[in-house]
Amino acid sequence: MAETLPLLTGSEVADWIRERIRVGRFVPGQRLVEVDIIRQTGTSRSKVREALQRLEGEGLVQIEEFRGASVKSTSLDEVRQIYRARVALEGICAADFARHGSAEHKASLRDLQSQLDQCVDERSPERFGRLNLEWHRLVVEGSGNRTIAELLKRLNVPIHRLLFESFYDEARLRRANADHQRMVALFLAGDADGAEAAMRDHIGDGFETLSKIESEFYR
Amino acid sequence: MAETLPLLTGSEVADWIRERIRVGRFVPGQRLVEVDIIRQTGTSRSKVREALQRLEGEGLVQIEEFRGASVKSTSLDEVRQIYRARVALEGICAADFARHGSAEHKASLRDLQSQLDQCVDERSPERFGRLNLEWHRLVVEGSGNRTIAELLKRLNVPIHRLLFESFYDEARLRRANADHQRMVALFLAGDADGAEAAMRDHIGDGFETLSKIESEFYR
DNA sequence: GCTGACGATATTGTTGACAATATTGTTTGG
DNA sequence: CCAAACAATATTGTCAACAATATCGTCAGC
After folding, report:
1. Quick one: which H or E segment has residue B116?
2. For residue B32, which phi and psi values (nearest 5 degrees)?
3. A29 — alpha (psi -120 to 50), left (phi > 0) or beta?
4. What does the angle CA B28 – CA B30 – CA B36 come to, to the nearest 5 degrees?
5. DSSP B11-44
6. How far apart are CA A114 and CA A117, in angstroms?
7. Nearest Cβ partner for A88 among B81, B88, B155
8. Could you tell me which residue, A44 or B3, shows the higher pLDDT?
9. H or E element in which residue A63 lies
10. Around Cβ A208, how many Cβ atoms within 10 Å?
């Protein structure tokens, strides 16, 4: 069960830690003690230190002198800022995807959408959450902008768990899926402005829902 | 002249390297040999290695095993992607600044604009370039979104020198300043949609100019 | 003269020991 | 019992030595 595989490079250790933060195995505020990570990953200290420095560069952990690394906590206002960035970036990706996206990408998205439609009827918010991530990732990929894709990947790490929480509200789930359906139609029609506006509304809505959730997520 | 001051922390060494990349003292493709940086900064090897790993996390350098770090070069297509991200992010900052920006921030921007106006008559593209950076930074700061500010700071590092080059074209400089003047008016009037549209056009124009410049910048 | 093999040097990767600091536990005086 | 001073431990920061690999120069053979 526990993945105590021996990791090789410092970058892989960073991936390992990032993933654990993403899924909530390491929670905000938690201290990341070097020895513990060495035990769990089977790597050397220099690799762990390298990984932690990398993650600090990404803004995911903070390092205090002689006190070590800890998972950075995210305030509600920071979540708002992240969503504002998402509105801007995914909005423009939606426009670019509608305008320049390949027929293959658009077909993939349409297929994915039909899977999402099933989830709504089956009442499986977990699965919906996963497919939802994939849906958004596909749009960004289809826009052909890897720079923005990278920015979004980083932005999403701190809010990953929140995203899933929001889909336990079924009304929100249904509304989100309706947005998705509408956007798929706009993508296929090549309506860039319409797709961008719809994406911005959709993500804006997402934050509205999120900010109302009772959560001990914030500091 | 040469700043061979002894730097203390690894993070400071990273700042030192990043600044030298930004201003073109380290050019794309150039190898960053640890010993050289140790000599120039007066720090130890572990600090330098820490700095380089951090910078790789930021995507500014690439590290190959047993071949060390080198400044990552930027293709024209990557510049395009960066500009697409800027269009999105600075656009939304413009809207937020027009909507929620403080009177103080708006006054500061108006003052800065008058300095820029002087530059146009004085024909000093270097000074215009510096003030232009400050102008954009001020808008983002005024929007109150530090997350986006951080993203933009990173995005701008690889294109910093290109930005200055574009203002040696006087027509471009005059057009840019006219854009700025128009936007300042929109900010003061609180016209969020107008400000966003203007910012997007302005930055889009910037890329158009850039992509026409003959430059050995790209790989 | 050219090419490929070989060795010398340069550069980076890794490990371990030690120093500096923080954290925790204990004792002592009130 | 509480609090402050002190001691013990844990944790991180730093450095230097060594190993692994790449790069460069040299030379033999054709």
Report:
1. helix B103-122
2. -105, 95
3. left
4. 140
5. HHHHHHHHHHHHTTSS-TT-EE-HHHHHHHH---
6. 5
7. B88
8. A44
9. strand A61-64
10. 12
